[in-house]
Specification:
About 75% of the residues lie in helices and about 5% in strands. It is mainly alpha-helical. The longest helix has 25 residues. It is elongated, with a radius of gyration of 14 Å.
Length: about 100
């Protein structure tokens, strides 16, 4: 169970930090900005869901929610929806 708790802690922290680091890269009137907003909302919703599951004593679903949320942001970075500072790119996102 300790391994599950460690992974859940790590992914919650990773998702929260990734949300803070990822800035929308597209012009505000671009359809890409709308897509980035959708990706960010999905990630933030999964962070909330994960925290809810964790509080309810369900670490498996908490970890799944944190992982899914991170996946939304990571995919957004990879396709160019988000700009990320170079010093955080390798630590927070796949390169």
């Amino acid at each position: 169970m300790t391994d599950l708790e460690e992974k859940t802690d790590r992914y919650e922290r990773l998702l929260a930090e990734a949300l803070d680091a990822a800035d929308v890269a597209a012009a505000a009137d671009s359809p890409f900005a709308e897509a980035a907003t959708d990706f960010r909302e999905m990630a933030a919703s999964y962070l909330e869901d994960g925290r809810h599951f964790r509080e309810a004593g369900d670490p498996v679903n908490a970890l799944a929610a944190f992982s899914y949320g991170y996946g939304w942001l990571d995919a957004g970075v990879r396709v160019g929806l988000f700009a990320v500072p170079d010093d955080e790119r390798g630590d927070l996102f796949t390169t």
